[in-house]
Amino acid sequence: MTKTLLSSGDLIADRRASYAQMLFIGGDPAAAADLMEQALERVPDWPAGLDLLGRFREAAGDVAGAIAAWRELAARDAEGIFGATLKLAVHGAAIAPDRTEPGYVAALFDTYADDFDAALLQRLGYRVPGLIAAGLNVAMADAGVERVAKALDLGCGTGLMGEHLRRPVSHLTGIDLSAGMLAEARLKGIYDELSEAELNAYLAGSADLVDIVTAADVFVYCGALPPLFEGVARVLRPGGLFAFSVETHAGPEAFVLRPSLRYAHGKAATLAALSEAGFTLISAHEEALREDRGEPVMGLVIVARRAAQAAVADLRPAEAAKAETVEAAPSLH
């Protein structure tokens, strides 16, 4: 999210908003909300200001006031950059959407791109890429394959998953909504190709077939998984591997929206959607994916195989893979 989006264009309103944030950080959200209301008297249509007002009122215990601010925000933020619909849904004031607005995800991760790796690995104990890589390694070893031709890393971010995929993959593609995250990934030199794209649109429009698809900590921003699973099946070769993580919940619902504005999925519904999309489950391990306020966030790390067609040959052994050139590296089919 850029400074241009955060500024109201009115110096006095911006100054009051800055003071309000200082009050909020200092532990007085009610005073922060009062001052934010004064700022918005000058610029009533300021989306970032309405978002701050909602946050301050919520922290002060004025949930009804926060909902009112976010309803105004939703009417003024056409791209959903501030996630007003999500915030309303968490408080029961709107129906949870099937997915997070792409504008919100892009803005969120543009904000965190510079410090993303340190924040996840050092402060939040993020483990997902390593867990997914371990599951893939087992599946590939069981199939007698050491190297494949092509892999697609959905929501690649700064390349934390790509770092694990580089060795066993000849051509690695990453896609992400955030230009800031892609810039960080490009600096690492991990990927052969990077694209700024929304997941469903990319999967629907891709003409390429790949051997592995990964999605590390991506589906927390996607409620309804069946359309995504169908899209992944479309770009995977028969016999190809699909490895991903989901945060989980214990209820019967296919997905729920948490106060963190992230989706948690039901295990049974997730596995059923995989099967319906033409995947055979290889493994589904319950793991602590990361920490949130010092508590583990539990989820599933899943590896599945796209059902192979009858005419497709068995997996090539690892010995054959070593003999191939990079351009003709064997696939998981």
Automatic annotation (TrEMBL):
<dbReference type="InterPro" id="IPR029063">
    <property type="entry name" value="SAM-dependent_MTases_sf"/>
</dbReference>
<keyword id="KW-0808">Transferase</keyword>
<protein>
    <submittedName>
        <fullName>Predicted methyltransferase, contains TPR repeat</fullName>
    </submittedName>
</protein>
<dbReference type="InterPro" id="IPR011990">
    <property type="entry name" value="TPR-like_helical_dom_sf"/>
</dbReference>
<dbReference type="GO" id="GO:0032259">
    <property type="term" value="P:methylation"/>
</dbReference>
<dbReference type="Pfam" id="PF08241">
    <property type="entry name" value="Methyltransf_11"/>
</dbReference>
<keyword id="KW-0489">Methyltransferase</keyword>
<feature type="domain" description="Methyltransferase type 11">
    <location>
        <begin position="152"/>
        <end position="244"/>
    </location>
</feature>
<dbReference type="InterPro" id="IPR013216">
    <property type="entry name" value="Methyltransf_11"/>
</dbReference>
<dbReference type="InterPro" id="IPR050508">
    <property type="entry name" value="Methyltransf_Superfamily"/>
</dbReference>
<dbReference type="GO" id="GO:0008757">
    <property type="term" value="F:S-adenosylmethionine-dependent methyltransferase activity"/>
</dbReference>
